[in-house]
Design brief:
The chain has about 290 residues and is α+β, with helices and mostly antiparallel strands. Helices cover about 45% and strands about 15% of the residues. A hairpin with a 4-residue loop joins strand 6 and strand 7.
Length: about 290
């Protein structure tokens, strides 16, 4: 395994900055420095639920665990709590983040969390691969925003100081590239029409939901409770609850916050897939509103 990033590698990354596959290419290059099995890139904006911008988690349960993380369990994660306190840019060992006395930790098992002493953080988000070792790259952004690149290793082998030093040797370059790529992503999101994004986010879901279920999901995302939905649609509240339960099952979510987080991820994907701003002259439209739901 090469312990350096070549000039050719750097040139390829720069050329790919505005492409959708840039994160995958960057992580492929980082793996030439430090071996890992899985990765996930999260964008944090203040206390809002994070958006998962990219990952190589297998489809199925492992991939769904990322949505559960964004749907609420992120609030217990040491990285998120350090993000709220202004985590420094750099390479961070998860066990060291776990030692901070201010951390808020889960106290009992629930639908989305299972306590476990075998885990570095003391708990496991449901369906998240067990006993992974984690190393985090943190990139501080303007305001209260942070980008997290989580590297995960299976098999119990911890990341070493020597491996962290390798990543630190290229971190200034990695940080600059990620900031530049994220700036493009944010510009795309701000140029996208709010209604266009909402339609793009719901388009795939409508194929999995009945018309009434899709209507109710849309109202839930707009902040209506079951009683208000029943009054608005002039149907019984038990009927609303039945449609809501069935919609959650079809979308593989268990709560309104998890539904909102999944929808945010869908919006992020829709924004990333939209044409470049330069190709659309009238892009001075307001950014889509973010949900503050966990």
């Amino acid at each position: 395994m090469s312990a350096v990033m070549t000039i050719d590698h750097m040139s390829q990354l720069v050329d790919a900055l505005d492409r959708q596959d840039f994160p995958a290419l960057l992580l492929e290059r980082l793996e030439t420095l430090v071996p890992f099995d899985l990765y996930a890139v999260f964008f944090y904006d203040g206390e809002s639920a994070p958006a998962c911008l990219h990952s190589n988690f297998p489809s199925g349960a492992p991939e769904r665990s990322l949505h559960r993380y964004s749907g609420g369990t992120f609030r217990y994660h040491p990285f998120f709590q350090h993000h709220l306190r202004g985590i420094e840019s750099g390479v961070h060992f998860l066990p060291e983040l776990c030692r901070s006395p201010f951390l808020h930790r889960p106290e009992r098992d629930c639908d989305s969390i299972r306590l476990s002493r075998d885990e570095e953080i003391g708990y496991l988000t449901r369906d998240f691969p067990a006993t992974l070792k984690e190393l985090d790259l943190s990139v501080r952004l303007a305001g209260s925003r942070t980008l997290q690149v989580g590297l995960y290793r299976q098999g119990g082998a911890r990341f070493t100081r020597h491996e962290a030093a390798r990543l630190n040797s290229v971190f200034p370059l990695v940080q600059s590239l990620l900031r530049r790529h994220l700036a493009s992503w944010l510009a795309e999101r701000e140029c996208a029409s709010r209604d266009g994004l909402r339609l793009a986010g719901m388009r795939g879901w409508r194929e999995r939901l009945s018309p009434r279920e899709a209507e109710i999901v849309g109202l839930i995302l707009r902040g209506y409770c079951s009683k208000e939905i029943a009054q608005k649609l002039k149907i019984g509240i038990e009927t609303v609850k039945t449609h809501r339960k069935n919609a959650y099952a079809r979308l593989d979510v268990s709560s309104a916050p998890e539904l909102a987080s999944r929808f945010l991820d869908t919006l992020a994907a829709a924004a990333c897939l939209s044409p470049p701003c330069a190709a659309r002259p009238a892009c001075g439209r307001p950014a889509p509103a973010r949900s503050d739901s966990p």
